[in-house]
Specification:
Strand content: under 5%
Largest sheet: 2 strands, parallel
Structural class: mainly alpha
Helix content: 55-70%
Distance between the termini: 36 Å
Shape: globular
Length: 399
């Protein structure tokens, strides 16, 4: 409820015009700064602050699974760039990925009496057999867990490129940007469309970082573990469907990535992989509701610029339509999922779910690209009050 109140207030306070070109002159009469270093900010300040925050929310926030040990530096760079692109176009996918790994890591921690960090390291393909294959299936744990328990949590954290303090600072950075936006709203100062888009990334970034707080960052090499002498690897004689033969897809596979692959013929886990818990459903309705809810919040924040000043009517309506679609699509898809679960034999319910999935896969990226492009093109025509900086002295108690 507090979130929706914030979006409403942000919409009201950012309502400079209704996007009509002849109101540009009216914007010139609004409050403006005195062009002093203490009261003004430049266009460069706005763009640089937003780009730095977006970079921290996409590139720095990504906690990838352990890559193939044979990958070169260029391949590793391209791998992270692809994940960064996914984060920019569909950040809900990364939230779902993080949430699923968090649920799985917590379950492994409680079931096998290890730390949550051990659970995350299992999910990200951090433990491999002596043959170099990932220990990434529940059936493997009885044979390998005695060796995994002997590995100290500190030894796993030593492989991480970031500790809890650095991750806490990164979370504080995202919260600081949110604080600045709230301060501008409270002082009746408008937010640019780029700042609104960045605010959406900042909110999602805080959620992602909290879910991955105990996951090691940018681990390049796995830890080799030996199986118990009385056990054999239970997967050696098991036929597992290879990754590229995983059809048809479940709705969870479409959201979180392919989950089926052959660990006994691979040297790493897929990019969006997390261990599927036997007898449990990590893709339960609660988890899906959280992921789709985050997607709705992400789109709703863009709706906060509903009444902002746009250079043209066309840009205003493109922004509005794209924001509404991004906010409404997760809710409609979730309702379609519930319908398909309640009526699994109903062809209409199944068709609606498949239709929503296909439409979202095709159309959703375009609306996201529209919002990204408009965030920068609208910078060519900003009201003078957009350059007024926050007066922080209003929040400092003094005699």
């Amino acid at each position: 409820m507090l979130f929706w109140i914030f979006v409403f207030l942000l919409t009201r306070q950012s309502g400079l015009t209704q996007g009509h070109p002849n109101l540009l002159s009216r914007a010139a009469t609004e409050a403006s700064c005195d062009c002093t270093i203490n009261s003004c900010r430049t266009l460069f300040d706005i763009v640089w602050g937003c780009l730095a925050t977006i970079f921290a929310c996409t590139w720095v926030a990504l906690h990838q699974n352990v890559p193939d040990p044979d990958l070169g530096h260029f391949a590793l760079l391209m791998r992270k760039l692809r994940m960064m692109l996914v984060t920019i176009i569909a950040p809900e996918v990364i939230v779902g990925f993080a949430a699923r790994q968090f649920v799985s890591a917590r379950w492994i921690s409680k079931e096998f009496d290890v730390s949550t960090t051990h659970g995350f390291f299992c999910n990200m393909g951090g433990f491999v057999s002596e043959e170099g294959h990932p220990v990434s299936k529940m059936k493997q744990f009885p044979a390998y867990m005695p060796a995994i328990r002997k590995i100290k949590k500190a030894d796993i954290e030593d492989k991480s490129k970031g500790d809890t303090l650095s991750k806490g600072v990164a979370i504080a950075q995202g919260l600081w940007f949110v604080t600045q936006c709230l301060a501008r709203v409270s002082q009746h100062l408008p937010l640019t469309e780029l700042e609104v888009a960045t605010l959406a990334f900042a909110v999602l970034s805080v959620a992602i970082r909290l879910l991955w707080l105990h996951k090691p960052l940018d681990v390049q090499q796995p830890i080799v573990v030996t199986r118990s002498e009385v056990d054999i690897d239970p997967l050696q004689e098991e036929d597992i469907t290879p990754l590229n033969n995983s059809v048809p897809l479940k709705i969870s596979d479409a959201i979180f990535g392919y989950q089926k692959y052959s660990p006994i013929s691979s040297t790493s886990v897929p990019s969006f992989y997390s261990i599927e818990i036997d007898g449990k459903d990590p893709y339960g309705l609660v988890l899906l509701a959280g992921v789709f809810g985050v997607g709705t919040i992400f789109g709703s924040i863009h709706c906060a610029a509903w009444n902002a000043l746009f250079p043209s009517m066309a840009e205003m309506w493109i922004w509005r339509i794209s924001s509404v679609f991004i906010a409404a699509y997760p809710v409609l898809t979730y309702l379609a999922v519930i319908g398909a679960i309640w009526a699994p034999d109903n062809d209409i319910a199944t068709a609606v779910l498949v239709g929503f999935t296909v439409v979202g896969t095709v159309i959703y990226p375009f609306f996201r690209l529209f919002l990204i492009i408009l965030s920068f093109t609208t910078l060519r025509s900003l009201p003078p009050s957009a350059f007024v900086d926050v007066n922080w002295s209003n929040y400092i108690p003094h005699l």
